[in-house]
DNA sequence: ATGCCTTTGTGAACGCGTGCACAAAGATGG
DNA sequence: CCATCTTTGTGCACGCGTTCACAAAGGCAT
């Protein structure tokens, strides 16, 4: 999962909880797969299993959308696909620009799942003049100078930032100024945006660090010796500035304060 | 943010809440930036602003790690960098394999932030024999046949899946069987894993759909006419199977049931 | 030493999200 | 038409996460 979200916290939009919104795409994907196999109806139990969630949670999620099921039978697949698509706003076309056509930007441009569901790559934009005109995923790369006009001409409201961290905020500012109100940020930076602009962040480094945390914990649980090779390094690296014996989180690293 | 997580729900590891763990990398990044500018200390207010969070939340987060601040002064940057690094398990080296060296896999392999923080790309693996041996990001691509031996020889416990959706579960199974216990999944699929294996999911498509939802809501709020061009399409596409007048989520699409 | 000022650390309240468990609803068979 | 069986929709309780607000703690000037 990508982490981080920058939403207005309270404004539960239209009564649908944020957590539910985040799961709707999951259900939609599972339903689409069923639809392609021409499965007419599905029970909450089956669908929940396919989406990897609890069936009670799924039913409650759907209850926010309305009463779309039939008791004793289940949910009509096609109908539900449409309802969720509509709720997510996928019945309309969303032009998207990708800024920063490096390795990642190119990968995103080539991503098939992009176009499949209402999203259309309106333009690829890069700051490097040498990139300009070169085709990537069948589209010619445009230069950053054209950013504003591209946004306006295509009515783009969703922008994807795949630039280096240093350029992200500047690109973000220009996108927002040009009218973009939703941003998907792949650059490892915290973006500052005005009220009313949604930012979602996808950060590989953060995901790995979270995994490392759990990995370390798992490793520490097997061998009940928390003081591994890292302890020595701890004493070497960490130099507690203030005096006074501090205790670690739970007695771990007991007073390793050299000074 | 990448969405989705597959953790054991309850097991609050070592007393540090999951939500806090997810923010630690954010703090760490902000602190590292401060460290490079040789800033000695930072207050919770300043650091919170840099990390894009509430200062009260930051202080509570740090309180789970221990009492590492000095009242009236703030936090020692270097010391905090070390404490968080240690807590996240970044003081040790984590060998990582990337499976699926397409556009995305190559982008990940080239990602700089990878090596910077304790993570080392042990191998790039792809199923295409034509890829084998070709250097990507300075590493020769290895064939899938070698997956198990690579995992074992390098003691890899973290795997990154960047394959097409169809291959993801199979790759996942092999990774887990070979000893991987943490997986970062970029394929748009729900992965089934045994107990004790952590999966984090990064899904571009889902992120975009969530943005589209909010975008649609914003658009619908300006123009107070929810019944847009989509309504007609609704009647055309949706064919409610069961009879009986259903009402939409809040009166929207009122009884558009062609029967 | 003393008092003031800054900033941390945390107790408490609140709200959101999750899961249980069950009543209501509808299908189905006789 | 009635009984039975399946599955939905949801009231309720619980736990996690967030935020407020403040007392305690330490630095610093006098």
CATH topology-level name of the largest domain in chain A: Rossmann fold
Fraction in beta strands of chain A: 15-25%
Largest interface: A-B, 103 and 103 residues
Q: How many angstroms separate the termini of chain A?
A: 41 Å
> How big is the Rg of chain A?
24 Å
User: What is the string of SSEs of chain A from the N terminus onward?
Assistant: EHEHHEEHEHHEEEHEHEEHH
What number of structural domains do the residues of chain A give?
Answer: 2
Q: Could you name the ranges of chain A where pLDDT drops below 50 across 5 or more consecutive residues? A: 1-13, 224-259
- The CATH superfamily of the largest domain in chain A appears as NAD(P)-binding Rossmann-like Domain
**How many individual helices of chain A?**
10
Q: What would you say the CATH architecture of the largest domain in chain A is?
A: 3-Layer(aba) Sandwich
Structural class of chain A: alpha/beta
The global form of chain A is globular
CATH class category label of the largest domain in chain A: Alpha Beta
The description of the largest β-sheet of chain A is: 8 strands, mixed
Query: Helicity range of the residues of chain A?
Result: 40-55%
What do the pLDDT scores of chain A average to? 85
Function (chains A, B): Modulates transcription in response to changes in cellular NADH/NAD(+) redox state.
InterPro entries (chains A, B): CoA-bd, NAD(P)-bd_dom_sf, Rex_actinobacterial-type, Rex_DNA-bd_C_dom, Tscrpt_rep_Rex, WH-like_DNA-bd_sf, WH_DNA-bd_sf
Subunit structure (chains A, B): Homodimer.
Family (chains A, B): Belongs to the transcriptional regulatory Rex family.
């Amino acid at each position: 999962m990508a982490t981080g979200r920058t939403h207005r916290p309270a404004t539960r939009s239209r009564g649908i909880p944020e957590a539910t919104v985040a799961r709707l795409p999951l259900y939609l994907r599972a339903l689409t797969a069923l639809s392609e196999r021409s499965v007419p109806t599905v029970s909450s139990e089956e669908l929940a299993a396919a989406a990897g969630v609890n069936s009670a949670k799924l039913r409650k999620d759907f209850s926010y959308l309305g009463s779309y099921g039939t008791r004793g039978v289940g949910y009509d697949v096609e109908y539900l696909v449409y309802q969720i698509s509509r709720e997510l706003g996928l019945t309309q076309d969303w032009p998207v620009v990708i800024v920063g056509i490096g390795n990642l930007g190119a990968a995103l441009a080539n991503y098939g799942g992009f176009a499949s569901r209402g999203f259309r790559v309106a333009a690829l934009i890069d700051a490097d003049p040498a990139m300009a005109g070169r085709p990537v995923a069948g589209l010619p790369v445009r230069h950053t100078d054209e950013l504003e006009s591209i946004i306006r001409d295509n009515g783009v409201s969703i922008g994807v930032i795949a630039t280096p961290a240093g350029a992200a905020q500047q690109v973000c500012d220009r996108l927002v100024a040009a009218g973009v109100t939703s941003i998907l940020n792949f650059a490892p930076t915290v973006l500052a945006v005005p009220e009313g602009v949604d930012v979602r962040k996808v950060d590989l480094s953060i995901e790995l660090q979270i995994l490392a945390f759990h990995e370390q914990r798992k490793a520490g649980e097997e061998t009940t010796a928390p003081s591994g090779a890292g302890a020595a390094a701890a004493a070497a690296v960490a130099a507690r500035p203030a005096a006074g014996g501090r205790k670690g989180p739970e007695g771990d690293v007991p007073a390793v304060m050299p000074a």
